[in-house]
Write a structure and sequence with these properties.
The structure holds two protein chains of two kinds. Chain A is mostly helical. Chain A is built from 13 helices and no strands. The termini of chain A are far apart. The C terminus of chain A is likely disordered. Chain B is of the alpha/beta class. Chain B has nine helices and ten strands. A six-stranded mixed β-sheet of chain B has the order 6-7-8-3-9-10, sandwiched between helices. A four-stranded antiparallel β-sheet of chain B has the order 2-1-4-5, covered by helices on one side. In chain B, strand 9 and strand 10 form a beta hairpin. Classes of the chains: A mainly alpha, B alpha/beta.
Chain lengths: ~260, ~250
């Protein structure tokens, strides 16, 4: 047989793809989204706590945050998922039974938190100290000033990097297959892989890849849109907006009635 | 400008010392401002003027010395509560860029003074009106000129009805043509009876508006007195040298 044709059919066998499609849509896609979205939420909350601990003036918060970040950022994701998913399985068994999802989501969240914590921390630290001083001078406590003034600005500055981390999370969610999934728990990658293994044809796996791209590529464009908007939002046009009120003495000159 | 002067207080700084490591920024600074009075603090860069201002509302805690409002030490007070009674305006405005002008002014009214939304908005709008910026309530600070931003910052501080106002080189970051508008608001405030401490390089303003001019050098107030005395009959050679350079 023509080797090129063989190659083509290995990846683009429409029949194999059509066979896998229903299960991808009804089982794989929802499961991937459950894993990625839950881990994104939990990872972002944990990441924010890590970021705040990381800039704390108490070393008893700062050091643990540092060590945590170094460990979970430094380990391969597969190793972390196995260590937590398998290592804590006996414990998990007693709490929620044999379902590997809770531990899988926990592992993904812990990994994401290490990266998201660094992203948030760098954003928060990029906010000028004068902003904190301005808020404190109004009578806000340190915590209130952080919550209302510093963190919102810092997070806005790093939204693109944060979305990038969500993209990584969608891809890493494929790794929970290590933990052993029953048919209804399989996510996109596992379904593609199973079809590929039984048919000896990679087309179903390629289809899974297309699903991942359908999720991640729009997100990368969201990143770019956010980035552009923040840039334009930041670029003020003061020259157009200055009016003669600046040149008057508002109170004395009665210019306030304008 | 309408200011409730019944709440104004006298201010005294007594022998304030502060060191950052081995660098002694304040070495026993003293300052007196009568109730409703305006003190302008002048002096070369690095003389400790801005630091002195920050010890008054305890953004920086002094190592030694005391700050008195109406004769009562503020050092025993909760610093957050103290800062609600002392308004401060900064060189770089320090407005919150992610909020509208109106929300910059209402934030502390709602979150600290716990005013209901409508009341906070009404109070904020009337404060913005006073500084001539009622029309900019919905703009973001970044879309305003420096002079407008500084007037918003003044409105934000005044909305909390402070007993004392501190100005830290409020016009130093402004383009020359915008300085007058901000100084005008400050002069109105002084005339209305607000107790003010103004760190400034604007000698014209100090001469015309201040009741007291205090010259700082190397962390102490070397000489202070009525503007005429300080500007026309300076005693200390360092003050005379400083005035020769800036006037």
């Amino acid at each position: 047989m023509d080797p090129l044709r063989t190659l083509w059919e290995t990846f683009f066998d429409w029949e194999s793809m059509r066979e896998a499609l229903p299960e991808m849509l009804t089982v794989g896609l929802p499961n991937t989204l459950i894993l990625a979205v839950s881990a994104a939420l939990l990872g972002s909350v944990l990441g924010m706590l890590l970021a705040i601990a990381g800039i704390s003036r108490t070393r008893w918060l700062r050091w643990p945050a540092r060590v945590y970040t170094d460990v979970f950022r430094g380990l391969p994701a597969a190793a972390t998922i196995l260590l937590i998913g398998v290592g804590l399985a006996p414990l998990g068994m007693q709490v929620w039974g044999p379902n590997p999802y809770p531990l899988g989501i926990l592992a993904l969240s812990l990994i994401a938190a290490a990266y998201i914590g660094e992203i948030f921390r760098s954003g928060i630290q990029s906010v000028e100290a004068a902003q904190l001083e301005g808020a404190r001078a109004l009578g806000f406590s340190w915590g209130e000033a952080m919550r209302m003034v510093i963190i919102p600005q810092g997070v806005r500055r790093v939204l693109p990097a944060w979305v990038n981390q969500l993209i990584a999370l969608i891809k890493d969610s494929s790794l929970v297959y290590f933990l052993g999934l029953v048919a209804s728990q399989r996510e996109l990658f596992r379904i593609g892989q199973d079809y590929a293994a039984t048919t000896g044809n990679e087309s179903a796996l390629l289809l899974a890849g297309l699903f991942y791209l359908a999720l991640t590529v729009p997100l990368t464009h969201v990143v770019n849109a956010i980035d552009a908007r923040l840039r334009h939002g930041r670029a003020a046009k003061p020259a157009d907006e200055i009016d003669d009120a600046d040149l008057a003495l508002p109170g004395a000159a009665g210019g306030s009635g304008r | 400008m309408t200011v409730d002067i019944s709440t104004s207080v006298s201010l005294a700084v007594r022998d304030v010392h502060l060191a950052f490591g081995s660098h002694r920024v304040l070495r026993g600074a003293d300052l007196d401002v009568a109730r409703g009075g305006t003190a302008c603090v002048i002096g070369p860069s690095g003389s400790g003027k801005s630091t002195l201002l920050r010890t008054i509302n305890r953004l920086i805690e002094p190592d030694r010395g005391d700050v008195l409002l109406d004769g009562r030490s503020v050092l025993a007070d909760d610093p957050d509560a103290l800062r609600q009674r002392i308004g401060m305006v900064f060189q770089q405005f320090n407005l919150f860029p992610h909020m509208s002008v109106l929300r910059n002014v209402t934030l502390a009214l709602r979150r600290i003074k716990k005013l209901p939304e409508e009341e906070a908005v009404a109070l904020a709008r009337s404060q913005l009106e006073l500084v001539g910026l009622a029309g900019k309530a919905d703009a973001r600070p970044g879309h305003l000129s420096g002079g407008q931003q500084q007037r918003v910052a003044i409105a934000r501080a005044l909305a909390l009805q402070p007993q004392v106002m501190l100005f830290d080189e409020a016009t130093s970051a402004l383009d020359p043509e915008l300085v007058k508008g901000v100084l005008g608001v400050m002069a109105d405030l002084a005339a209305a009876g607000m107790t003010m401490v103004v760190v400034t390089h604007e000698m014209g303003f100090a001469r015309e508006v201040a009741d007291t001019v205090a010259f700082m050098d190397h962390g102490v107030v070397l000489e202070s007195g009525e503007p005429a005395a300080v500007f026309e009959a300076a005693e200390h050679p360092r003050l005379r040298r400083f005035l020769a350079q800036v006037l």
